[in-house]
Input
Amino acid sequence: MGSSRSSHYLALKQIAKVSNSAFSLRKICNSIAKTTAKAMGANGCRVSLLDPQKEYLLTVGTHGLSDLYLRKGPLDAHKSLPEVLDGKVVVIPDATKDERVQHPKIAETQRVCSILGAPILEREEVIGEIRVYTREPHQFSEADKSFLTSVANISAVLLERAELHQLLEKGYRVNEEQAKLVQMPQLPTTSLRPTEFAHPSEEEFARLLDFYRIEWLYEPRSFPLRWKGGEIAEMFTPDFYLPELDLYVELTTLKQNLITEKNRKLRQLKELYPEIKIKLLSKGDFHKLLAKYGYSPLGEAKIEGVSRILYSHSQIQRRIRTLAKRISHDYAGQRLVMVGILKGVVCFLADLMQHLSLPVTVDFMAISYYGGDDGQVVKITKDLDSSITGQHVLMIEDIVDTGMTLNYVLGHLLAHNPASLRVCTLLDKGARRLTNVPLDYIGFEIPDEFVVGYGLDYKGEYRNLPFIGILRAELIKEDKL
Ligand code: PRP
Output
């Protein structure tokens, strides 16, 4: 095995050329993996991308790795060479003995020995990584490390360009502040998913998961089911893995002979790998599954008015836990009065208070709006039940839009001389702000769209959706006619 500066140079030339070609992203990444492995005299290479939550590594291009090695299970970004995710180039001299390797047993059977990994950095942020693998023990040189870093740099530009391209195709405005838009939270979680599906029903299933913003990995793991003379004689690769639910899913059609065969494999899998959760799902079962996990208890009909889900139930809950931790820390040793304005705040306030490790009391206000001479005027229709004088008050809002409501209510509360007064809002629609209001805790900054669900309504409806979605533009337009 050997590599030289001239082979590195020729490889970089080839990689730059293919990166600028019109091939699909997957094809380009496979080609980068092949050229890189060859130039370094390595046996395999994998280009992976971090999912938006930075929890999993998704393969976007490979060369020379066995199917079983590739499908050894979802790669947990924090367990799998975490130093690469800190932005460092990492050398693993022997993957079978190294505790930094997530699946050392499979590395051994699949003859993976030395690994060199480099981060793919977009500006200073790690967005993925590139790794080369050798079958025999290998010492990587400084030239190898610098070559792999250059390949990672080219890949970063390519991946960023591919992402912008996909955003354009999806109708996002990427003309002004592109970099900002790429990081906006409402982007589809799967914007760069490179998957080619084996069956149209799988693609349909992936679309449904995307709609509900449920993270998924396609065929991430193969389970050996039968061995013959030390060799694997039969394997089973479930169609999907849903990390949030820690669940593997195999889709099934109505063909009875296929169902029987799949059931047999599932039974075998459960016997051999009792810790694995797996479900055989038909199209109809899917909504039952979603209902069970709290995604769509209303079924399909009610969410017809929603064009896209902005934040899933679990994303909201994750964010609430983080906010609650900060609030509990900031108010440690104090009592807190939470004040909510009816009605939109009910879901958020109820969930937030359950995660606060503080003594808390809760009070509500209700207000109405009427047209005055100089625009809308806010009027209190239900005031606080208890005095807040000398108390630490945290005002809770579901959404701050123009800021007029909050501005008025804060003035009212301050007149009662609380010991302190801060604001926590789940959603901040900064684009429509008319008055400057202080926001101390913000769940999500959202774009200028009409949002419903999780307490927020449109004409009194949609409050009971367990997620936050964007209302179909046609509905509002029809209303304005
Ligand atoms: C929403 C929300 C805020 C307010 C924010 O209430 O709960 O209180 O609007 O808007 P602003 O920043 O433009 O003042 P809404 O009037 O929809 O009543 P609801 O809470 O009963 O849904």
Q: What stands out?
A: The chain has three domains: 5-181, 200-300, 310-480. The CA atoms of residues 266 and 278 lie 8 Å apart. Residues 341-345, 397-406, 457 surround PRP (CB under 6 Å). The chain has a mean pLDDT of 82.
